Amino acid sequence: MASVLVTGASGFIGTECVKALLSKKHRVFGVDSTASSLIDTDPNFTFVQCDVTDKDTISRIIASNKVDSVVHLANSVDNDLDSYITDAEMKKSKICDKFIYEAADKNSCKNFILLSTTQVYGIVKGREPIRETSPEKGSSNYVDMKLTSEKIMSKAFKKSDTVPVIARVAPIYTSEYTQNLRDKVYDVKDDVAYIYNDGLYGFSFCCLYNLLDFIKGIVAIPSGRYEGIYNISDSEILTAKEILDFEREHHRIGAVIQRSPGVGISFNKAKSRTDYRYFDPSTTFNNWRIDNTKAKRIAPLKWTLSNTK
Questions:
Q1: Crossing angle for the helix pair 87-106 and 141-156, nearest 10 degrees?
Q2: Which domains can be identified in the chain, with CATH numbers?
Q3: What is the spatial distance between Cα 230 and Cα 295, in angstroms, rounded to a whole number?
């Protein structure tokens, strides 16, 4: 049984992460600026309501409870937050970066998991899968925020016994939460779903349970050096047709119109900078295939849209 601190523990991903860790009998400490729905549900869960910038409180939790692992989900967009990443959000992330890595190092945490995003790779051309060594060409406030956190983290743990793990996660979904899927096939302005040709083009996503299995796998690693960047995604892309069929089956989508590629939707460059979920339809046929080979050494990543819950 490990002792684990989860930041952002009340969010969409955070709540499920806490439940997944508790199911493995770990002792979990959660922090978030909003109350957790899991308070008093398990004797192994302790929740402290505080802002992620509260250095004294978070450092004290790490120091006083012999925390083995930190799962840092705060300052990550998990679809509870507004889709616009402001300067204030970026500043808050930097404040946290300045002390949380130091606290983990100082108190000899076994490992530290930072939730990042595959958006750091930006728009990729060519057919080769996007690997952890691919150039980081993403351009948005969210990408800047996560890359800053990654760089500060790597530097902080360079000579540390704490193993740093950066989880670059593709857009998350579950059977009930499918907004990230819909973003690729839905025109909000005209309030209509659309498809190009036969809809057999697709994108890389990550079932939430693949991410949770990866986190549980890192927490459970007994020893060794496994630091670095991991791409976390489903093993196969989801096609536009599969997304539309799934949404129809669950009665969440109506008529679907046929469109010609590059016609019908305009690109808003300014919005793409601040809105982490903004999708440029002109990039539909670019390379979205994420290589998760490295992460599969930690967890099987077996979940797909067809077997998720």
A1: 20
A2: 3-172+206-234+289-297 (3.40.50.720), 179-201+238-283 (no CATH)
A3: 6
For residue 246, the tally of other CB atoms under 10 A from its CB is 19
- Block residue for tokens 């993403």: 138
Beta strands in the chain (DSSP E): 3-7, 27-32, 45-49, 69-72, 111-117, 163-169, 172-173, 186-187, 192-196, 202-203, 206-207, 228-232, 238-239, 256-259
pLDDT in tens, 163-211: 999 999 999 999 999 999 999 999 888 889 999 999 999 999 999 999 9
Q: Per the structure block, which two tokens stand in for 136?
A: 């980081």
The residue assigned the tokens 């979990």 is 28
Note the pTM of the prediction, 2 decimals.
0.95
Is the distance from CB of 247 to CB of 253 less than 8 angstroms? yes
Q: Which residues is 258 bridged to in the sheet?
A: 195
**Digit-coded pLDDT (tens) for 223-235:** 888 999 999 999 9
Please report which helix (H) or strand (E) contains residue 94, including its range: helix 87-106
Picking from 233, 245, 243, the residue whose alpha carbon sits closest to that of residue 208 is 233
- Distance (Å, rounded) from C-alpha 299 to C-alpha 214? 5
Other beta carbons within 10 angstroms of residue 191's beta carbon come to 8
